[in-house]
Every structure is written in structure tokens, then in C-alpha cells.
Recover the amino acids of this structure.
């Protein structure tokens, strides 16, 4: 019988969850859901020295915001509780003991200085692999070289020791990676890694393999940086007699810097001025605040869509995928081996697409609320909807919608002088004044009616409407470009528009006069 698909995202709470971690979580989630399986969040917190308070909670909040909801986790519970490795310590000891009993692991008492000495000796002998393994272990202080009595005496005396796995001298370790194909490693290239530390806690390798087995994980989908550890994990499965239950592996391609030169990192992102964390992260050690994607205005579904295409492709040109679409389409065979460039402009493009596809009603409600709380502006829902309809194609982020809507509520404070110099003349003055007069007292229900009115007024004056559009816009908004002008007039209403135009004509004339005075001075 085929096993139910069970995958896990297994972060260590050593800092803020990086965007690369969120992609790993997403790919695991999509794979699980595609196969009607389970997505598990397991917290790998056995390394006490790297523990960062708040990091676990941050992971949980980030996943929730992105809509990547675990079926089992420290907060959701599940059949395999607990999901925090620090609460499962007793389980690892048992397997470390089993390996010791079978002669597949051993105690080692070497001090850091002795380890250093060993490495430098190997280096002097011209070796490349400075490993603690079959080539060097018999020269060290461990239960393979010391007598049983001495080992027991040392342990009883409280000498610090670790437990190391005994990697075979001559063996080939093979594993099939779903993305990379067969990976072969000769055991002489491996290290007798520590599986139990001197504080009695397991290392990542032991805890990770034991938990994947106990939690019946079927597929290990993780970043490429874990590929070098995979042969050791295969060996642990073999030593513990779990080869038949070994999960399949898939190591995801690296996320590269925007120029493709090297790995994306927090430093790179900080320098380029884009976020790297899903939510704002305040480092509890340095107190440094890093603004998140959420706080920068990214919508979670846009970010998820963007991340889904970092390494995976649907095999077509299609780019817009909802979470449901992704679940339907996602397969491991469409993940590439090559590193994938992180292009923040593309992330913005997705955000724009998602913002644009929101209904005017949803955006209007948001805008009405924000205007009220941020600027103390009261605005009818219908007006907020009309404004949203005009602005949504022109902004990338929600907060820009709010900021750029202010032209509807605040009279222009300044005007672009270049446009005044270019476009303000006797003809445009007549055009604007006549149109303003014409507006007064009129009610328009559509922008089409306003357009007709404007055109008729211009025709009657014998003025080409195209020649005065920009200065009319400037008069109404203070800006040389923006959303549909007739819609702006409709939303502002006839009285407000009339007012703004009249005020502007006065300001334009003043500016023109000041210019002329300046010119005269220069001529004298
Ligand atoms: N705890 C590891 C990490 O921090 C998990 C790696 C794995 O998925 O095996 O990424």
C-alpha cells in the first residue's frame, strides 16, 4: 500500500525566517496538498547556543500570513507530538545507545586542541579531507583506541565526551535526489560526525533522521545547502535498519542575488533596499529592525505566487497562480537544478497584478478606513470605490493607493512650474476660466457627460482640447500626469473643480508675472 505523503518544514529557531525558508515551506506545503498529504512544522531547537527568543513564534506567524497552514505543529498538535525537538530529547538517546551497542558509533574524548592538532597533521601530510574518520580515528582518544576500563573511568569521572558515528572505510553511499538524480559519495570523504554532543543533546543529524523516521516523513524537501549532509543521513537510516522507510529526497536550488552572482543574503537585500523577511523582524540581540514584505506593502498571495516560481516552473508561460492553482499544478519534476535569481522587480509586478485584480469594493473599504485612521479624512464608500477604480492600475502597493488618493481631498499646494511656463498662455487661460464657469452649478453623473461638456466648450472657443488638457490637470491636481481627468472632475464635483481651477489660474498668473519680472531684470 502506498504511504500517505507526509512532509515537514524543519526550521531551527536561530533568527528571523528568511524568504528562502518561506519558499522551502511553500514547496513542502504544495507538494503535500497536491498529494492530499500532510504538511508538518517541526522546530529543530536542539542547539541551545543558537536559540533566539521569538524566532519560533515568528515562523508560525509568517506561515500563517502566507496561508501555509501546517496540519501538525507545536501549536496545531498532531499524532506525533511533541513537534519541538527540545521536548523529544529522550527519544534520541535511545537510538544513540543502539548505535553504540551495535558498534556503529563510539565515544570520543578529544579536546578542541587535540582535534586541531589532528587536522594540522593531516594537512601537513598533504591530505585534502581533514576528517575524523577511518584514516585518523585510530590516532585519537576514543572508545576504539582506549580500553573499556579507561572509557568507563573517564565517563564516571565526568570527562566531557561526544558520540560519533562510525563511517565505513570503503563504501559508496548513494542516494536518489528527485531534483538532481543519483548522488554518489565515497565514504572516505565523510566525517565521523558527532551525533550526541557533550551536553547530552543530539546534533541536527541524529535528531533530524530520528524524527523523520518517527514522524513517518515520506519526502524530505529542503534547501541545497543540506545536500552534503544527505549521505550521512542515508548512512544513519542504514545503521538503524530503517532503509525501507527512508524518505525520498529533493534538494531545492539556491536563490541567487539579483545579478546571479552568489547567494541571496540579508546583507545583499539590505544593500539593495528590499525586504528579506516575510514580516518585520526585530533582532532580539542587536535590536535591529528589518522591515518585512508585509509591512512593505506586499500581499501574501502575490508573494506566494512570486516565490512559487523561484525554482519551479509550470511548463508553460503562465505566471499568475493562486494557492489552489499551485496545489493543482505543483510537481517535483518541474523544479530545476540551477540556482534561481531573485528579482524584486518581478515581486513588485506580481503585487501590482494582485492589487489590480482586487474588486473596487474591497479596495474602497480599505481606502475609506485608512483615510480615516491615517489622515482623519471622512470619505463616502462610493467615492472611495471610484477613487480605487482610478488608481488601482497605477500603484504597486496598497499604501500607495492611500497616498495617491490625497489629490482628491487636498487642494494642490504647489504646481509644476515647467508645465506652467510651457502651457500657460492667453489661450489656455480663456479655456480654463470658461470651462470653470461652465461647470459651476452643474451636476454630472458620468465622466462622459463632463467630457462632452469640456469638448463643446472648447469647440465654441475654437480651442483644440488636447492643447489645454495638461494645464487643466495641473490646475486640478498640481501634477502633470495621473488618472483619467474627467473622472477626477466627476469625483471632485463641479464646485470643488471650479474652485480649484479658479485658484490655480490666479497662482499661474502670479508665477508667470514673477518670471517676467525676473527676465526684465536680466535684460537690464
Ligand atoms: N533544521 C534544519 C534547518 O534549519 C532543517 C534542515 C532539513 O530540512 O533537514 O534548516
Amino acid at each position: 500500500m502506498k504511504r500517505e505523503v507526509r512532509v515537514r518544514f524543519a526550521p531551527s529557531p536561530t533568527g528571523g525566517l528568511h524568504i528562502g525558508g518561506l519558499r522551502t515551506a511553500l514547496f513542502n506545503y504544495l507538494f503535500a496538498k497536491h498529494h492530499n498529504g500532510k504538511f508538518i512544522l517541526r522546530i529543530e531547537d536542539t542547539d541551545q547556543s543558537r536559540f533566539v527568543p521569538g524566532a519560533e513564534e515568528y515562523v508560525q506567524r509568517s506561515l500563517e500570513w502566507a496561508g501555509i497552514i501546517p496540519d501538525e505543529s507545536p501549536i496545531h498538535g498532531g499524532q506525533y507530538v511533541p513537534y519541538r525537538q527540545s521536548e523529544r530529547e529522550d527519544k534520541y538517546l535511545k537510538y544513540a545507545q543502539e548505535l553504540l551497542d551495535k558498534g556503529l558509533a563510539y565515544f570520543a574524548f578529544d579536546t578542541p586542541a587535540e582535534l586541531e592538532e589532528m587536522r594540522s597533521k593531516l594537512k601537513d601530510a598533504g591530505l585534502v579531507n581533514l576528517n575524523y574518520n577511518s584514516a585518523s580515528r585510530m590516532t585519537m582518544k576514543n572508545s576504539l583506541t582506549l580500553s573499556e576500563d579507561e572509557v568507563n573511568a573517564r565517563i564516571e569521572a565526568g570527562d566531557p565526551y561526544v558520540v560519533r558515528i562510525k563511517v565505513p572505510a570503503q563504501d559508496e553511499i548513494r542516494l536518489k535526489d528527485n531534483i538532481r538524480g543519483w548522488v554518489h559519495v565515497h565514504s572516505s570523504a565523510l566525517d565521523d560526525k558527532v551525533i550526541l554532543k557533550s551536553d547530552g543533546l543530539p546534533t541536527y543529524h541524529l535528531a533530524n533522521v530520528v524524527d523523520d523516521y518517527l514522524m513517518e516523513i515520506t519526502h524530505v524537501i529542503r534547501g541545497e545547502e543540506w545536500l552534503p549532509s544527505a549521505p550521512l543521513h542515508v548512512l544513519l537510516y542504514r545503521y538503524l535498519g530503517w532503509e525501507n522507510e527512508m524518505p525520498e529526497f529533493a534538494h531545492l536550488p539556491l536563490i541567487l542575488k539579483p545579478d546571479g552572482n552568489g547567494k541571496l543574503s540579508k546583507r545583499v537585500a539590505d544593500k539593495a533596499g528590499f525586504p528579506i523577511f516575510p514580516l518585520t523582524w526585530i533582532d532580539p540581540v542587536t535590536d535591529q529592525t528589518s522591515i518585512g514584505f508585509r509591512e512593505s506593502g506586499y500581499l501574501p498571495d502575490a508573494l506566494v505566487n512570486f516565490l512559487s516560481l523561484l525554482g519551479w516552473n509550470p511548463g508553460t508561460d503562465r505566471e499568475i497562480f493562486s494557492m489552489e492553482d499551485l496545489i493543482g499544478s505543483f510537481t517535483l519534476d518541474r523544479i530545476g537544478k540551477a540556482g534561481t535569481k531573485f528579482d524584486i522587480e518581478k515581486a513588485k509586478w506580481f503585487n501590482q497584478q494582485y492589487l489590480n485584480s482586487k474588486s473596487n469594493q474591497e479596495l474602497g473599504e480599505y481606502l475609506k478606513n485608512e483615510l480615516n485612521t491615517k489622515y482623519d479624512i471622512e470619505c463616502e464608500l462610493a467615492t472611495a470605490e471610484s477613487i480605487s477604480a482610478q488608481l488601482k492600475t497605477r500603484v504597486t502597493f496598497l499604501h500607495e493607493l492611500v497616498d495617491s488618493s490625497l489629490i482628491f481631498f487636498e487642494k494642490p499646494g504647489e504646481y509644476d512650474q515647467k508645465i506652467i511656463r510651457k502651457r500657460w498662455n492667453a489661450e489656455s487661460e480663456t479655456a480654463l476660466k470658461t470651462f470653470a464657469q461652465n461647470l459651476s452649478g452643474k451636476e454630472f453623473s458620468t465622466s462622459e457627460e463632463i467630457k462632452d461638456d469640456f469638448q463643446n466648450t472648447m469647440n465654441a472657443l475654437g480651442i483644440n482640447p488636447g492643447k489645454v488638457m495638461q494645464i487643466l490637470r495641473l490646475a486640478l491636481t498640481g501634477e502633470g500626469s495621473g488618472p483619467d481627468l474627467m473622472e477626477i472632475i466627476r469625483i471632485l464635483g463641479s464646485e470643488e473643480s471650479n474652485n480649484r481651477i479658479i485658484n490655480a489660474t490666479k497662482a499661474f498668473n502670479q508665477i508667470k508675472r514673477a518670471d517676467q519680472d525676473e527676465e526684465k531684470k536680466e535684460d537690464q
